Amino acid sequence: MGLPDAIISPRLSWQPAQAIKQLEAIIEANQHQGITLIGSSLGGFYAAYLAEKYHLKAILVNPAVQAPVLLQDFLGPQLNPYTNEEYELTQAHMIELEQLVITEPTADLYWLMIQEGDEVLDYKEALKAFPKTARLTHEEKGDHSFTEFERFSAEILRFAEILTE
User: Which Gene3D superfamilies does the UniProt record give (predicted)?
Assistant: First the structure.
């Protein structure tokens, strides 16, 4: 299997429970292969939940560890800027997110990648939620997109055990 075949980047539902079901189906269909999850922002929140549920490695990039709290400010009609899909975020969705919160992460499953310049999330919350990890990348500057993420490509492939050199 070549590298492009080893990477799955699905378009997920905006509804938390539906997004998790989509991801669980992918994990279960590929469980015979080594799986490492990579998630940024809300995707990092989802990745942490799934890492614990399936005991998988996960790389969390500026994760939204307090998603149920943060998204309270966005209740009501929304527009996905990437797909132009209109939807309404409700309190029921916040309850779905609450069910995904992990309280005792398994340290050796995670690589936490944070940048202090994240203009959306407080990096200190991620450090509190993941006080111990297998690996930590903590940079002073940067932004929510994790500036120059591609610098870590080879290390990510090694962490995922795709690249063994």
Answer: alpha/beta hydrolase (3.40.50.1820)
